[in-house]
Predict the 3D structure of the following.
Amino acid sequence: MEALAHHSGATVRTIRAYQDRGLLPKPERRGRANVYRDTHLERLHQIAGLLDRGYTLASIKELLDAWDTGRGLGGVLGLVAEVTGPWSDEEAGRITRAELGERFGGAQDDDAIEEAVKLGVLVRVPDAPEEFLVPSPQELAVAAELHAAGVPLLAITGHLRELRTKVEHIAGRFLDFTTEHVFQQYLDHPPTEEEATEAASLVRRLRPLAQQAIDVELARAMRTMATRHLRRHLDAEVVDAGAADAEAVEAAGAVGAMAAEEAVPAGIPDRSLPRPGSVRLPDRTFRAVEALVGPENVAAFVAAAVEREVQARTMDALVIGPEAGQTPEAGRTAG
């Protein structure tokens, strides 16, 4: 047992505890001696790896029992690796205390550094007291930019603490959602090798979806909230006019496209056959155009947008005709 402890890095006491829990096979008995083999050393390494990934001894025993009864552990360990491995391609870095001070404009704030260490933004290096590991250089870069913009260091760490709580709640909800609708079929019984492999593949496919959804929703929310915030602090009419300009430019293209589709069902329009009637604009589009050009110019603006779209389609048809295999004469006739 002492030799096994030496080679595995575990203590004799730990090995005995694993034996008592049934995590470690019994040794071979030779006379008065207990003989441990490479299989015992491999099992200790497996247990240590699973413990490092956050598994309890009870759950480790279930996994190892599955392995011992021939149900396979490769697929399960593959699933473990997918879930517990890095969820981004970002690589950790290192930074010295001096470099940290330069990065933050010469600030030497020990309290802020301690907060960053508590949050895991910085990790102390045991054998290098003046160096830190940086698990996410991108996160540190965001903090540096905020500080350069005038945000105090402790305010940044406090905001990160609050943000992390909310993000962890969102992550928990996403996991609950995907577990209920996707992964529950693998969790109501010990998974087979094939099921564990299939679940690992699903994790790999679905893993980036949470971040993609957050990116889109955050962009939407930031625009909405920032505009609302700006309106509270500036002249609301100025802000609304600026927003209307952007909306009107987008709306003009949409109005022109819709009207041109109505006026040009196929080919190039016949200008000798006007089409009487009216098209109702969405209220939001009407307000945006009205804010851009004034109420008295809405009709002229919409007409100009439609005419520009019709002209553009006419030019496209003249160019596309010969390219589609028509003769120049046929293209001119179509025009």
Q: What stands out?
A: The longest strand covers residues 128-134. The two ends are 93 Å apart (CA to CA). The first helix runs from residue 2 to 8. Confidence is low (pLDDT under 50) at residues 259-275, 320-335.
